[in-house]
Hints:
Blueprint: E1 5-8, H1 14-22, E2 28-33, H2 36-46, E3 53-57, H3 63-76, E4 80-83, H4 98-130, E5 134-139, H5 152-171, E6 177-183, H6 191-195, H7 208-218, E7 224-226, H8 229-259
Parallel strand pairs: 1-2, 1-4, 2-3, 4-5, 5-6, 6-7
Helix pairs in contact: 1-7, 3-4, 4-5, 5-8
Amino acid sequence: MEHRCALITGATYGIGKAFAEALPVTTGLVLTGRTEAKLAALRESLAHDGRQIEIVLADLATEAGRDRVIAAAEAAEIDLLINNAGLGRFGAVVDNPLAAEREMTEVNVVAPVVLTRALLPGMASRADVSGRRAGIIVVSSVAAFQPLPFFATYAATKAFDLLFAEALAGELAEAPIDVLALCPGATRTEFFRRAGLSDGIFPHIMDPEIVARRGLDALGRRTIEISDPIRRAMLAPALTFRAVKRVAIRLVMKRVRDRS
């Protein structure tokens, strides 16, 4: 499946950067992040054969930053939205700075909702006209499937992302837009260092390139993709039940909508 233009948030590191590198050269890019030099270097490494690439320096924890990204994505007429940017902070909620807890919520929860709501109408309209499917990937985490003491806010925000993507997929089931919740396990990125952890504590850790490619391959085929095969096997029964429950709940909620 090829898209004309993709917006990738958190594109300068890890999984976001891997998404940018994995998409075909025929897909234009709008790349956002908070480090201008790294955005510029990424654009230079990917710009060839006349490929259109725009970089947007923006902090998604702020309304101004989100507005800047939305404007650039609308101007580029994207048909693939990858809500990848995310933050974590290890420690007890009461010990973590309030600013850090707030920033996690703004980037992990508010930004995906605001960007998706703002860009979805245009994406849907263009998909209807062109006859090509659009796509939305929300990067959640395997942390979304259980509460995590000392990672409480992060896990809760990722649970929100998972539920948001699942419900959105139900709402758009009859629209030409595919929705995927991508749930990586431990991945070799800057995330753990920024969260105050070492990735050496994990016996099994994945490369971001594998996570990104599995996400792109799963879009349009599944609603939830757990990129770590070990975690996928562990969660397989729960995922099967979850898929059945999604169908049933969608039918109930659709009837409620039709009657209201």
